[in-house]
Specification:
The complex is a heterodimer of chains A (331) and B (270).
Chain A: E1 4-11, E2 14-15, H1 18-29, E3 37-43, H2 47-53, E4 60-65, H3 74-88, E5 92-94, H4 99-112, E6 116-120, E7 122-125, E8 131-137, E9 142-148, E10 153-157, E11 176-177, E12 187-189, E13 193-194, E14 207-211, H5 220-231, E15 234-237, H6 239-243, E16 264-268, H7 274-277, E17 285-290, E18 303-306, H8 309-330
Parallel strand pairs in A: 1-3, 1-5, 3-4, 4-11, 5-10, 6-10, 14-15, 14-16, 16-17, 17-18
Antiparallel strand pairs in A: 1-2, 7-8, 8-9
Helix pairs in contact in A: 3-4, 5-8
Chain B: E1 2-6, E2 9-10, E3 20-23, E4 28-31, E5 38-39, H1 41-56, E6 61-68, H2 73-76, H3 78-81, E7 86-91, H4 100-113, E8 119-123, H5 134-142, E9 146-156, E10 160-167, E11 170-177, E12 180-184, H6 196-204, E13 208-211, E14 226-231, E15 240-241, H7 247-260
Helix pairs in contact in B: 4-5
The chains are: A alpha/beta (331), B alpha/beta (270).
The complex binds flavin-adenine dinucleotide and adenosine monophosphate (AMP).
Flavin-adenine dinucleotide sits between chains A (139, 212-214, 238-241, 252-257, 269-271, 273, 275-276, 279, 290-292, 295, 308-309) and B (13-14, 41, 127).
Chain lengths: 331, 270
């Protein structure tokens, strides 16, 4: 019987960053869950990603490498994970809260009849052999503490809630390969159409400049893009900006968008609804620019400017541009 | 052909945290004032998806089903006002729970009792507990394929459902043979406003109430973690307001402040 099985999600050939956070969770509870830490790498052409995943020094590494797993096809990926769990009988499965990861976790939990702990921001093993965890609910307005008895369990930690584990380069481990033997599929999928992101993507950038309903249209996003370019950041958006068709949904920050924790988050014309804040409240420094002094966004901001977003951000951009030019000349 | 849309009655997700009352005896989240509940936003979009399908499939019957401890009938009747043919309310005290299993068991039993569905539409998640689990259990109970996170739903030759699924960085198409379950996401677009004529017809229609006990839903497994505490998290920070004579002045000051504190570093300084 395996102890903890970490799902290492490979997205377009690259190991997803949440993997290192899952490793932190596994290490935190592994003393209470006998059987060691195993890693499952599921996908097509995942040799490089598997090698990278070995960097956390797991006890065993399991690979299902199959052409049918090339796309983020939930049914196929879930079938592979369910197959592995049948072979390994883990006590705890840790999956990332990505679109694919959350889905295969739910499919696994329902199929196997295992309890699912989603979106957890804190977790500990209890003396009676169960788990206790905290997770945001109601869009983040409320924190629920939940408890469950004996496993197996499926656990999906919230992105950015746990520090990423460092790779311990020494790991020499031979992956165990498993032939993919799924039951007949009831769904089929096409090839993903990936939207080209202009500049950096929000979930990788150290600085995010995000715009919301207060921008009034797509044009002011140009200003935000110029600011982002000056500071080496990415442009994000609230759901109102996305739903209005001003920007792509890939830029959405929040409950159903991306969960990010950059060093600096600049929210421009964003009211600060709880479903938005839950996606950005872990940012180190938050700046809010809003014409309404009573906007809730100021409640979680370190710096606030009450004013019109175009006026404020135009002067902000120009000042940064001038200073950047001066700095360039000084060298 | 029949589409069932699952509607969850939830407290208004825009209720500020200060207006929430946490009942840590029953582990329920309630609203302080007598504010009316709403239909879960993603579920409204499920109705919209069904209405769009009926634009081409004229014989499509749209049945909405909701399960709850008690209902605000006026709120739920919005489903009829926008054009649903039937609204079924399954009522039982046990259905006000964060546990997805009893809810899914009730919905599955109701769907069976009305003679099944060709397409079941659900929202991606309820905005109260953010579980997003009911559709998975429902798919298992009804033995239907599940397609999730649709921003577009189409039925081809009356036999297959095709969706455009939202991804973090784009989308992909997915399909399955009917009967199937589809969950919809906000990218699908908002629910249309009811026409005056439709509203008048709807005013005469009544929801059908069914008691859970009459459904023979069966006993759900005890798989949900137990909620042992609820709290409003403290997220506040001390906001330093940048003072200036006007907007442009504030923009300049903001830039200077962020450069001084090192929050922003420019090209060459990095
Ligand atoms: C289940 C669920 C999930 C959700 N998921 C998300 C999510 O992932 N991400 C998300 O963002 N939202 C999400 N929402 C929506 C969320 O509740 C809010 O509706 C949304 O965040 C509001 O966006 P906004 O603040 O940009 O727009 P608005 O609410 O329109 O606010 C605009 C703000 O701009 C200010 N403003 C207006 N004019 C100016 C000006 N000239 N200069 C400066 N400021 C100005 C206004 O004072 C106001 O504060 C979700 C909601 C639900 C129910
Ligand atoms: N009590 C309920 N009544 C009707 N539909 C529900 C109920 N609970 C959940 N659903 C459906 O399942 C979806 C996901 O909800 P949940 O799993 O509770 O987050 C919702 O968007 C609804 O479509």
């Amino acid at each position: 019987m395996a102890g903890i099985l970490i799902v290492a999600e490979v997205d377009a050939g690259v190991l997803r960053p949440e993997y290192w956070e899952l490793a932190t969770v596994a290490r935190a509870v592994s003393a209470s869950i006998p059987g060691g830490v195993s890693v499952a790498v599921i996908g097509a052409d995942v040799a490089a990603a598997a090698q990278q995943a070995a960097g956390i020094g797991p006890d065993t590494l399991h690979v299902i490498d199959d052409e049918r797993l090339a796309n983020p096809w939930p049914e196929a990926h879930a079938a592979a994970l369910i197959q592995l769990c049948g072979e390994l009988s883990p006590q705890m499965v840790l999956a990332p809260r990505s679109i694919l990861g959350a889905e295969i976790a739910a499919r696994l939990a329902v199929r196997c009849g295992w309890p699912l702990l989603q979106d957890v921001v804190q977790i500990e093993a209890t003396p009676d052999g169960g788990l206790q965890a905290v997770r945001p609910v109601s869009g983040g307005a409320v924190a629920a503490t939940v408890r469950i008895g004996a496993g197996p369990w499926v656990v999906v930690p919230r992105p950015r809630a746990f520090a990423p584990a460092a790779a311990s380069a020494v790991a020499e481990i031979t992956p165990t390969r498993h032939a993919f033997a799924p039951p007949p599929f009831a769904t089929a999928c096409g090839t993903p159409q990936r939207v080209a992101v202009q500049g950096l993507s929000v979930d990788r950038a150290k600085i995010v400049v995000a715009g919301g309903g207060g921008l009034g249209g797509p044009e002011p996003f140009t200003l935000l893009r110029e600011v982002a370019a000056l500071v080496g950041g990415a442009v994000g958006a609230s759901r109102v900006a996305v739903d209005s068709g001003w920007v792509q949904s890939t830029m959405q920050v929040g409950l159903t968008g991306k969960t990010i924790a950059p060093d600096l988050y600049i929210a421009v014309g964003i009211s600060g609804a709880i479903q938005h804040l839950v996606g950005c409240s872990s940012s180190q420094v938050i700046v809010a620019v809003n014409s309404d002094p009573a906007a809730p966004i100021f409640g979680i901001a370190n710096y606030g400017v009450v004013g019109d977003c175009k006026e404020v951000m135009t002067a902000f951009r120009d000042t940064l541009a001038t200073r950047a030019a001066q700095a360039g000349r000084a060298v | 052909m029949r589409a069932v849309v699952c509607l969850k009655q939830v407290i208004d997700p825009l209720t500020p945290a200060t207006s929430l009352a946490l009942d840590v005896q029953d582990m329920k989240i309630r609203v302080r004032a007598a504010a009316p509940p709403v239909i879960n936003g993603f579920d409204e979009q499920g109705i919209e998806a069904a209405l769009r399908l009926r634009e081409t499939i004229r014989e499509l019957e749209i049945v909405c089903i909701a399960a709850s401890e008690r209902f605000n009938t006026d709120v739920m009747k919005r489903a009829l006002a926008v054009g649903a043919d039937q609204l079924i309310l399954v009522q039982d005290p046990s259905l006000d729970t964060w546990n997805s299993y009893p809810v899914a068991y009730a919905l599955a039993a109701a769907i069976r009792q009305i003679g099944g569905a060709d397409l079941v539409l659900c929202g991606r998640q309820g905005s109260d507990w953010d579980n997003g689990l009911v559709p998975y259990i429902l798919a298992d109970l009804l033995a239907m394929p599940l397609l999730t996170l649709a921003k577009r739903v189409n039925i081809a030759d009356g036999k297959r459902v095709e969706i455009e699924r939202v991804l973090a960085d784009g989308s992909m198409t997915m399909e399955a043979a009917l009967p199937a379950i589809v969950t919809v996401t906000s990218e699908l677009g908002a629910l249309r406003m009811p026409s005056v004529a439709a509203r008048l017809t709807a005013a005469r229609k009544q929801p059908r109430q069914i008691a859970l006990a009459d459904l023979g839903a069966g006993a759900p497994p005890a798989l949900a973690p137990e909620v042992i505490d609820l709290a409003i998290p403290v997220t506040g920070r001390n906001c330093t307001f940048i003072e200036a004579a006007d907007g442009p002045g504030a923009g300049v000051r903001l830039a200077e402040t962020l450069l001084e504190t090192g929050a922003v570093r420019l090209g060459m300084e990095r």
